[in-house]
Fold this sequence. Notes:
This protein is mainly α. The protein contains 24 helices and 2 strands.
Amino acid sequence: MTALTAKPKFFVPGDWNALFGFGTNILVNVLVLTGLLKYVIGMPGDVLFGRILPALGLMLCLSTCYYAFLAYNLAKKTGRTDVCALPSGVSVPHMFVVTFVIMLPIKIATGDPMAAWGAGLTWVFVQSFVLMAGSLIGPYIRKITPRAALLGSLAGISITFISMSPAAQMFATPVIGVICFIVILASWFGGVRYFNGIPGGLIAIAVGTIIGWGSSALGLGYGGLTLSGLHDSFSGFGFSVPYPAIGVLAGGFKYLGVILVTAIPFGIYDLIEALDNVESAAAAGDSYPTMRVLGADGVVSLIGCLMGNPFINAVYIGHPGWKSMGGRIGYSAVTGLTVLVLTWFGIIAVLSALIPVIAILPILLYIGMLIGSQAFQETPPRHAPAIVLALLPQIAAWGKLQIDNALGAAGTNAAAVGLGKLASMGVLYGGLEVLGGGATLAGIVLGAITVFIIEREFQKASLFALAGAVFTFFGFIHNEAIGVMRSPEVTVGYLGVALTLFLCAKFATFGPMVEEVHHPAAMPEAAE
């Protein structure tokens, strides 16, 4: 039997590491969204555990099994044994957006969590079709966009929205968080093998759980675990399968005008993020068909929506991380099947009371570190400035979110405080708002312009600047909402950039090309 016709192995020893790593990543997200629905939206337990979570489990199972299928076909086609399936799951940023921007305002206005649920379903319904339509143009976007721009924007997400919160929470509870983090780093970066080859992720969770319950017994309370909470969690046991929620979805269409303001831009965000993550997998050696990936995210999300799940599915950041720890095909499908069992049998409530979340968060920080570094490792060193520029919109968006949350906790907002007063204290809120609007797409545009300038392909850089002007005009970037004549000054700025670059392409003369980026102190200008 030749290599190209050999049957790929579904599960290999390295899949155990990836299973516990990726599986705990998914578990964290499921536990978080369960808490959001229960405590923020006030969703009744029978709806949460009997309708929404079973629909979520079905969506995640379909998604992870499909990407395992794609990996199996790629391994069979290429004859390679190191093919790793794309990770996928609930889109984390959207988890908070749909909760706080869509569902919560409607819950407050109506006092009805069921109305909020319907609005969330409608939001996912619209986004699903944006993703499916985007699958037709996704391959072309990926072809013309420099890798540094795609990976740079992705690195911005990994540093801010993926890494910062776990890092802060770890050091807020260092007795569990930091110790578990070192257990993971020693295994996945340092190559340490634990007892009988037990995966590092499982060891970290076990250590964190032991410390959490031990501190609870001593009255210290690290991890917030209590016997009463564990006892109460068993009331959620029971077998529930999802069934169509068409009526609830239809009721959400009365809020369509409010929903479209965010659903379309965030659908485009999902499209771009999926392109980034497919590019990340390609940089790690596994090239998947872009159209099939984007289309699958849309279809799977639509199925979940029709069954009652108000959260969108997305290809996850982190493929190189799971691959580096030995993940291949089986880790993805087994994770999906496990989640199906956990959600259909009501076990999620028990796990949330048994395992301290702080013991799981270090895995997310590990993934953030890996993806942030990949942007620099998998692109030419001379493109490093483009990567740094592509990071900035995500950092701005994250910074603005921190300011908004802090002011909201104080019962006010930036407009009430005054942008001038904030600026006088060095808080450039207006600039963060403009730079961070549509951060993922903005980072790609800025990164691509810079790459083509470095490569002296000024005409291509001019075209990306022109695209930036169009995106800004309609509010897809550098703004909080879509529309016409959004951020006119930024639009004019991009048009000026496009004109300048076009003139450079036609009339400029050049000196020798610098092959790599050097330290400023080594440059003649800095030495003078």
